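G., the chain you wanted modeled:
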Amino acid sequence: MSEKPAPRLLLILPIVLMVTLGVFYAYGLTFDPNKSPSRLIGKALPNVTLPALHDTQKEISSLHFKKPAIITIWASWCSACRAEHELLMDIAAQHRFFVYGVDYQDDLENARAYLKAQGDPFDGVMFDGAMSSAQPFDVLSLPQTYLIDQNGIVRARYVGTLTKEVWQMLQATLNSPEN
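Predicted structure as C-alpha cells:
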C-alpha cells in the first residue's frame, strides 16, 4: 500500500507562518509607542478611583489631583521605573508640579518598602494591583508618564524612562501655542 504524499499546502504552511512571525517581530523592534498619539491628549484627565497605597481603606480619585501635575504609572519591580525615581524626587522637590503615582500590577508590601527605602516623591499614590487603570490611562508599558495642565487637561504622554531631556520636552508642551 502506497502512502499519499502530503498536500503542498501543509508543506508551505510552516514557511508562511515563519515569514508572518518574522514580520511581526521586525515591527515590534521598530515600534515606538511615543510616536503613536494618545487618545487622552487634549482631553480631561480620566476619572479613576483606586485605594491609596499607604492606606488601602482610603480611596483616591484622579478627579482630586491638583494641577499642574504629572502622573507616573510605575511598579517596584520595574527596572526602568527605578531608573527614573531620582528624577521624580528632584521634580517633587522643586514644588512646581504635583507628582502622583499609580502603582501598577505590583505587590502592596513591596511597593511600600521600595518607597520607604528610596524616598517617596509622590503627593499621592493609587494602588492598582488588579490593573484597573489600564484602559482609562491607556497603559502600554511601564513606566508611563502624563503631564496635566492647570485646567486638568492631559497635555503630554511619555512611555519609557523619564530623563531630564524628556522632562524638558514634556514641560515645553505646556507652553506650546496649541494649548
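Helices lie at 8-30, 79-94, 108-118, 164-172.

Shout if anything looks off.
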